[in-house]
Every structure is written in structure tokens, then in C-alpha cells.
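Predict the 3D structure for this chain.
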Amino acid sequence: NIVDVPCRDDYYRDSDGNCVCCKFGGA
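Done. Predicted structure below.
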């Protein structure tokens, strides 16, 4: 089950709902 908690500011949520680094430094 995915727990709906905020990701860190520099992370994004992937298609599985995981917090993934880093939305400011990649594609």
C-alpha cells in the first residue's frame, strides 16, 4: 500500500508512488 506522505522538495513521485531523487537534476 502506498502511504500518501510528502516527498522531499527535491524528489518526485514515480509511477509506483515512490519518492525518487532528484527532480531538479535529471531529465
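The radius of gyration is 9 Å.
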